[in-house]
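During the reporting period the student researcher (J.K.) took over the structure-prediction task from the postdoctoral fellow and processed the backlog of single-chain submissions. One of the processed entries is reproduced below for the supervisory committee.
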Amino acid sequence: MKECVKGCAEGVIIEVNVTPNSSLNMILGVDQWRKRLRIKVTAKPERGAANQEILEMFRDIFGVSNADVAITSGHTTSLKTLIVTGMTVERAIPALMAAIDNED
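J.K. obtained the following C-alpha coordinates:
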Protein backbone atom coordinates (compact mmCIF):
# COMPACT_ATOMS: atom_id res chain seq x y z
CA MET A 1 0.00 0.00 0.00
CA LYS A 2 2.88 2.38 0.70
CA GLU A 3 3.91 2.25 -2.96
CA CYS A 4 0.71 4.00 -4.07
CA VAL A 5 0.09 6.34 -1.10
CA LYS A 6 2.71 9.02 -0.56
CA GLY A 7 2.91 12.03 1.70
CA CYS A 8 3.29 15.58 0.42
CA ALA A 9 3.19 19.06 1.97
CA GLU A 10 -0.58 19.39 1.41
CA GLY A 11 -1.58 15.87 2.47
CA VAL A 12 -1.32 12.57 0.59
CA ILE A 13 -1.01 11.61 -3.05
CA ILE A 14 -2.79 8.41 -4.11
CA GLU A 15 -2.03 6.70 -7.42
CA VAL A 16 -5.01 4.73 -8.78
CA ASN A 17 -5.91 2.50 -11.71
CA VAL A 18 -9.64 2.81 -12.42
CA THR A 19 -12.01 0.42 -14.18
CA PRO A 20 -15.20 2.32 -15.03
CA ASN A 21 -18.60 0.85 -15.97
CA SER A 22 -18.29 -1.95 -13.40
CA SER A 23 -21.10 -3.71 -11.58
CA LEU A 24 -19.94 -2.40 -8.16
CA ASN A 25 -17.93 0.44 -6.65
CA MET A 26 -15.00 -1.19 -4.90
CA ILE A 27 -11.34 -1.06 -4.01
CA LEU A 28 -9.62 -4.25 -5.11
CA GLY A 29 -6.17 -3.71 -3.60
CA VAL A 30 -2.78 -2.74 -4.98
CA ASP A 31 -1.57 -3.53 -8.49
CA GLN A 32 2.01 -4.48 -7.60
CA TRP A 33 3.25 -4.06 -11.15
CA ARG A 34 1.85 -0.55 -11.69
CA LYS A 35 2.21 0.48 -8.04
CA ARG A 36 -1.36 1.80 -8.04
CA LEU A 37 -4.51 1.18 -6.05
CA ARG A 38 -7.00 -0.76 -8.21
CA ILE A 39 -10.56 0.55 -8.02
CA LYS A 40 -13.81 -0.09 -9.86
CA VAL A 41 -16.67 2.35 -10.29
CA THR A 42 -20.13 1.84 -11.76
CA ALA A 43 -20.19 5.13 -13.67
CA LYS A 44 -19.29 5.27 -17.34
CA PRO A 45 -16.26 7.32 -18.36
CA GLU A 46 -18.46 9.99 -19.94
CA ARG A 47 -18.63 13.69 -19.07
CA GLY A 48 -16.60 13.18 -15.89
CA ALA A 49 -19.12 10.80 -14.29
CA ALA A 50 -16.51 8.18 -13.37
CA ASN A 51 -14.19 10.86 -12.00
CA GLN A 52 -16.99 12.23 -9.84
CA GLU A 53 -17.73 8.76 -8.50
CA ILE A 54 -14.04 8.25 -7.67
CA LEU A 55 -13.96 11.52 -5.73
CA GLU A 56 -17.13 10.58 -3.82
CA MET A 57 -15.65 7.17 -2.96
CA PHE A 58 -12.52 8.70 -1.47
CA ARG A 59 -14.47 11.42 0.39
CA ASP A 60 -16.51 8.68 2.04
CA ILE A 61 -13.47 6.56 2.89
CA PHE A 62 -11.60 9.44 4.52
CA GLY A 63 -14.59 11.37 5.86
CA VAL A 64 -13.43 14.63 4.29
CA SER A 65 -15.17 17.47 2.48
CA ASN A 66 -15.55 17.93 -1.27
CA ALA A 67 -12.74 20.47 -1.33
CA ASP A 68 -10.26 18.04 0.27
CA VAL A 69 -10.13 15.45 -2.56
CA ALA A 70 -9.11 16.22 -6.13
CA ILE A 71 -7.81 14.47 -9.22
CA THR A 72 -4.51 16.11 -10.12
CA SER A 73 -3.71 14.11 -13.26
CA GLY A 74 -5.29 11.51 -15.50
CA HIS A 75 -8.70 13.14 -15.94
CA THR A 76 -9.25 11.29 -19.23
CA THR A 77 -7.33 8.06 -18.58
CA SER A 78 -7.67 5.08 -16.26
CA LEU A 79 -4.38 5.93 -14.50
CA LYS A 80 -5.11 8.80 -12.14
CA THR A 81 -3.40 10.71 -9.36
CA LEU A 82 -5.47 12.05 -6.48
CA ILE A 83 -4.60 14.40 -3.65
CA VAL A 84 -6.30 14.37 -0.26
CA THR A 85 -5.44 17.56 1.59
CA GLY A 86 -5.06 17.52 5.35
CA MET A 87 -4.56 13.74 5.38
CA THR A 88 -1.47 11.86 6.55
CA VAL A 89 -0.06 8.59 5.22
CA GLU A 90 -0.44 7.14 8.73
CA ARG A 91 -4.21 7.80 8.63
CA ALA A 92 -4.76 7.12 4.93
CA ILE A 93 -3.33 3.61 4.73
CA PRO A 94 -5.48 2.08 7.52
CA ALA A 95 -8.60 3.77 6.09
CA LEU A 96 -7.87 2.32 2.64
CA MET A 97 -7.10 -1.11 4.07
CA ALA A 98 -10.42 -1.07 5.93
CA ALA A 99 -12.21 -0.10 2.71
CA ILE A 100 -10.64 -3.06 0.91
CA ASP A 101 -11.62 -5.46 3.69
CA ASN A 102 -15.19 -4.14 3.95
CA GLU A 103 -16.19 -4.08 0.27
CA ASP A 104 -18.97 -6.48 -0.74
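The committee noted the following: The CA atoms of residues 8 and 85 lie 9 Å apart.
J.K. will present the remaining backlog at the next meeting.
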